[in-house]
Amino acid sequence: MAKTLDKVDVVTVGVGWTGGIIAAECAKAGLKVLGLERGKERGTEDYLMVHDEFRYAIRYELMQDLSKETITFRNNRKQRALPMRQMGSFLLGENLGGSGTHWNGHTWRFLPYDFEIKSMTEKKYGKDKIPKDYFVRDWGITYDELEPYFDKFEKTAGISGDGKNPFEGKRSSDYPTPPMKKTPILKKFEEATTNLGYHPFMLPSANLSEKYKNPDGETINACQYCGFCERFGCEYGAKTSPEITVIPTARKTGNYDIRFHANVTEVLKKGDKVTGVKFIDRVSGEEFIQPADVVVLTSYVMNNAKLLMVSGIGEQYDPETGRGTLGKNYCYQILPGATGFFDEQMNVFMGAGSLGMTIDDFNGDNFDHSDLDFIHGASLSLTQTGARPIQTNPVPPDTPTWGAEFKKASIHNYTRTLNVSGQGASMPHKENYLSLDSNYKDAYGVPLLQMTYNFTDQDKALHKYLTSKTEEIMKEMGAKTVVPGNPLTDYDIVPYQTTHNVGGTTMGSEPDTSVVNNYLQHWDAENLFVVGAGNFPHNSGYNPTGTVGALAYRCAEGIIKYSKNGGSLV
């Protein structure tokens, strides 16, 4: 029988960026907050030996244990979904900090176009521009309304940038720290894109260019350009993560506690409110009930959706009838790109997760789509993230994939290869969604989440068009051989692509089309909040973290208001 614990004001399920932000803001406001984290505690001191590519980048030391919980996957409803038994297309984080520990640090604000995409697209191109099978809609909030929260997240994280992107939304203040170093490799990209008439700028980075103290008094150190960011924790405390910012801020208030190894299996609901959560201690096997005045789901996209589904909160989306919102609008990301092989050697093995230059000339609606069979676009970047030796074996076409000739070509080209790549927007389609699997369960007897997803005609057209643009840039950079990315076919859950999964618990202005309102308050339970990239009705041409952070700060504001006054916030 489950043991009932003492009630708290706010309980968060997951302690990464969103859980940390909610905790810090609510605890500063005097609320008693408990974070439930199913993983273990960790921090900067645990990463002193982090430059072990095999342990972290190949064996995924920091990632979710798929023997305990995973997802099942299929391309369409006619297929049988099967479990993902090893990390593949995306890397789900676990333990304190979640995915905010092993991220690269790209920190973007989604474009003003993103938040009003349906209205703006139809106004410019007509209602027929968006096919009926695509669930494209506005977010229920505008960029201008969200801008103060973007600003707050960037100041908390100390983001480094140059402010030279002519296409970004209006900013209330400059980036907190200057841009990172503009290396010879980045200058090559800058010169080529400028020659082509585009507008290059330094990529906004959570690998900081200089030491910085944020408004909460937390110190973030300067990046050492070691090249071990993505899939790794930072032993310098120079990659902004929850463990060195919002979590220490919350703990210092005395109003915050974290319970580790706590795997939440259900959100408890009575009438039109939730009463708390049920969780299992992963070490002892004991079951507990944690009562709370406010429950906040702050785990990853997949788990937030799954918890609502197994708890029976909200109506599951049905692609047959079109009814329901939970699990709807699942989107991934499209990755056009081109590889260039050069004669000269370059220092590719040094770098940082967000060391790069970008153009936004083909992102959002920054270019004319009148004669194109897709909407939106991609940010196109050259990033110098550090070419790690185990996973970096670039060889030109027609090179054997093993043997002496392969080894020779791989060694020769290791320091002579660059990539220009895009992060392409993904639009929601009626056949792409999340649901519960009817066959498979996790280690605790809870049904696994099932993903039904495939690339669409929109995705394929966008990928083809933007791949040609990356090929054009690479040729202008002077590569002797340029290899464009292969055309999109069916989506495969291997190999790795990005951990930029969105949708399933979307925000909006009406309960008929969304799961939460624009404070991320659940339409069916006023004291339940759901925070993360699952709130996005579509994916943009950027990494999601900056927008997730902004939404988390707005949600925290809403929780504090709710704790005082109750009721719906909109």
Automatic annotation (TrEMBL):
GO molecular function, one example? flavin adenine dinucleotide binding
Its keywords, alphabetically, are: FAD, Flavoprotein, Oxidoreductase
Q: Domain (Glucose-methanol-choline oxidoreductase C-terminal): give its ranges.
A: 428-552
Report the residue ranges that make up the Glucose-methanol-choline oxidoreductase N-terminal domain in this protein.
218-329
Record's family? Belongs to the GMC oxidoreductase family.
- The yes or no answer to whether the keyword Acyltransferase is present is no
Q: Tell me the protein's name.
A: GMC family oxidoreductase
Q: Which SUPFAM superfamilies match?
A: FAD-linked reductases, C-terminal domain (SSF54373), FAD/NAD(P)-binding domain (SSF51905)
Q: One Pfam family this chain carries?
A: GMC_oxred_N
Q: Does the keyword Flavoprotein apply?
A: yes
